[in-house]
C-alpha cells in the first residue's frame, strides 16, 4: 500500500473522529428540560424523589466519560479488577485532597494508558511506513505503553500526595501558632479556628475549613478533630488533631498544647533536614572529588611538567 493511500486513510479516520467528538460535545452542552425547569420549581416539595441529580463536571475525565461512557467504564472496571487496591487508592485520593471518586480515577488511568498507546502506535506506524517494523513487536510495545501510562497515573497520584503533605508540614507551625495566639487572647476554639481559616490559605487551612464545616453542622468539636486525625496521612497532624480533641474533652489549656505542637513540628523539620543532609553527604562530595580536586591537581602539576619539558634537552 502506497504512502498516499495511507495518508488519505489516516486523514479520513481523523476527520470522522473529530466530527463525532464535536457533535457529541454540542449535544452534551445543550441543556435538558429538567435543568431549564428546575429553577422555577426548586421550592416545591418533591414527591418520590430518589436524590438530587449529580452536578455536571467540567473535568476532562468527566467529558471523556460522557462521550465514550460505556467503553471507558468497562475499561475502568477491568483495570480495577486487574490492579485492585481500591481502599489504598481511596485513601490516597483523600490524602491528596482530590474531589474524585475511585471510578473517575480509574477512568483517568485508562485515558493516560490510551494516550501512551496512541503515541506508541503513531511511532510504530511511522516505523512501519519506513519498512523497519515488526507487527508482533509493535503490538507488544503498544500494550507495554498502555500499561506504563496506567501505572504512571498511579505514580502521579502518589507524587501529588507527597507534595500536598510537604505543603501541610510547611504551613503547620504557623497555623498552630495562630490558633494558640487566638485562644490565648480569649477566643473560643471554634472562633479561633474560624479566624485562622479566614485569614490563611493553603492545604492545611482547607482541611481545617472542612473541620469547621463539620462543627457548624452540629458535630462535636472533639469528634470533628478525631475525624481529621483518622483521615490524614501525617503523624504530626494526627497528633495535633488528637491533642486538640483531648484538650477539649479534659479541659487542658489549649494554648499550651498548640504551642507544644508547633515546637514539635519545627523540631521534626530541623531533624529531617539534618538527616537529609547526612544521607546526601556522599552526593555532596561528588563535585569536590570529581571536579574541584582534579582541577587543583592540574594547576599544581602542570607548571612543573612544562618546566621539565623546557629543561630536558
Characterization of this structure:
82% of the residues lie in helices and 0% in strands. It has 313 residues and is mainly alpha-helical. The protein has a domain at 166-270: Up-down Bundle (Receptor-associated Protein). The radius of gyration is 30 Å and the shape is flat.
Strand pairing plus helix content: what structural class?
mainly alpha
Figure out the total of helices: 13
Overall strand count: 0
User: How can the largest sheet be summarized?
Assistant: none
Q: Which percent bin holds the helix content?
A: over 70%
Task: Kindly estimate the percentage of residues that lie in beta strands according to DSSP.
Answer: under 5%
Return the CATH topology of the domain at 166-270: Receptor-associated Protein
Distance between the termini: 75 Å
List low-confidence stretches.
Answer: 43-58
Average pLDDT metric: 77
Morphology: flat
CATH class of the domain at 166-270: Mainly Alpha
Radius of gyration: 30 Å
Q: What is the N-to-C succession of helices and strands?
A: HHHHHHHHHHHHH
CATH architecture of the domain at 166-270: Up-down Bundle
Write a concise keyword list for the protein shown above:
82% helix, Receptor-associated Protein, 313 residues, mainly alpha
What is this structure's SSE topology?
Layout: H1 3-29, H2 33-41, H3 60-67, H4 69-83, H5 86-96, H6 102-129, H7 135-184, H8 189-199, H9 203-216, H10 221-231, H11 235-250, H12 254-279, H13 281-311
Helix pairs in contact: 3-4, 3-6, 4-6, 5-7, 6-7, 7-8, 7-12, 8-9, 9-10, 10-11, 11-12
Keywords: Cell membrane, Membrane, Transmembrane, Transmembrane helix
GO cellular component, one term: plasma membrane
Domain Type II secretion system protein GspF: 176-299
Amino acid at each position: 500500500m502506497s504512502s498516499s493511500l495511507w495518508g488519505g486513510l489516516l486523514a479520513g479516520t481523523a476527520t470522522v473522529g473529530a466530527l463525532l467528538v464535536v457533535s457529541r460535545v454540542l449535544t452534551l452542552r445543550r441543556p435538558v428540560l429538567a435543568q431549564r425547569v428546575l429553577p422555577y420549581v426548586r421550592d416545591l416539595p418533591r414527591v418520590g424523589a430518589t436524590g438530587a441529580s449529580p452536578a455536571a463536571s467540567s473535568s476532562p475525565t468527566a467529558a471523556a466519560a460522557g462521550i465514550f461512557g460505556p467503553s471507558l467504564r468497562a475499561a475502568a472496571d477491568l483495570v480495577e479488577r486487574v490492579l485492585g487496591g481500591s481502599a489504598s487508592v481511596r485513601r490516597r485520593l483523600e490524602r491528596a485532597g482530590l474531589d474524585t471518586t475511585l471510578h473517575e480515577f480509574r477512568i483517568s488511568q485508562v485515558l493516560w494508558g490510551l494516550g501512551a498507546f496512541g503515541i506508541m502506535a503513531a511511532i510504530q506506524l511511522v516505523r512501519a511506513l519506513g519498512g523497519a517494523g515488526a507487527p508482533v513487536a509493535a503490538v507488544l510495545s503498544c500494550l507495554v505503553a498502555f500499561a506504563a501510562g496506567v501505572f504512571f497515573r498511579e505514580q502521579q497520584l502518589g507524587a501529588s500526595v507527597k507534595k500536598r503533605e510537604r505543603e501541610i508540614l510547611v504551613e503547620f507551625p504557623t497555623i498552630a501558632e495562630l490558633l494558640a495566639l487566638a485562644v490565648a487572647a480569649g477566643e473560643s476554639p471554634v472562633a479561633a479556628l474560624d479566624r485562622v481559616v479566614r485569614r490563611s490559605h493553603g492545604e492545611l487551612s482547607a482541611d481545617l475549613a472542612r473541620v469547621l464545616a463539620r462543627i457548624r453542622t452540629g458535630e462535636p468539636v472533639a469528634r470533628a478533630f478525631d475525624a481529621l486525625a483518622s483521615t490524614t496521612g501525617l503523624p504530626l497532624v494526627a497528633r495535633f488533631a488528637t491533642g486538640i480533641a483531648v484538650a477539649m474533652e479534659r479541659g487542658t489549656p489549649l494554648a499550651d498544647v498548640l504551642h507544644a505542637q508547633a515546637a514539635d513540628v519545627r523540631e521534626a523539620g530541623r531533624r529531617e533536614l539534618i538527616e537529609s543532609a547526612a544521607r546526601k553527604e556522599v552526593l555532596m562530595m561528588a563535585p569536590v572529588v570529581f571536579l574541584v580536586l582534579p582541577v587543583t591537581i592540574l594547576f599544581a602539576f602542570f607548571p612543573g611538567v612544562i618546566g621539565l619539558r623546557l629543561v630536558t634537552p
